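Hi everyone,

Forwarding the result from last night's run.
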Amino acid sequence: MKLSTINKFALISIASKPLRTVLWWQVYAAVALTLAAGWWAGMHGAISALLGGLINVTAGWVYAMMVSGGTVKSAGQTLRTLVRAEASKIALIVLQLWLVLTAYHDVVVTAFFATFVISVLVYPMALLVRD
């Protein structure tokens, strides 16, 4: 496949309205909790909360991009795509958790994990959004 035949907007467009909506909800929750953590624990609390929220936002975006691409030809192909997307999401979450906890020495663990957990809990709300 030539690069010129690839849809230029395929990399930034997510076909599923529920996934787009939930990603925005995760962003809103991360920003709100970042502001609260900044007020509560200062700059490092805000940075920690933002990182905790962004972990799930980026992983959810990768998942959404993987399941939004292309046409599905069979049930087996759908299942393979979903499993690959979920595995990629989990691997990215684990990698990002490791990176933050090892590289950012001033992490405020309470703010970081609170925002992380809340953004995880927001994700299943995609079931409530109509397509």
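Helices lie at 17-68, 75-103, 109-122.

Cheers,
N.
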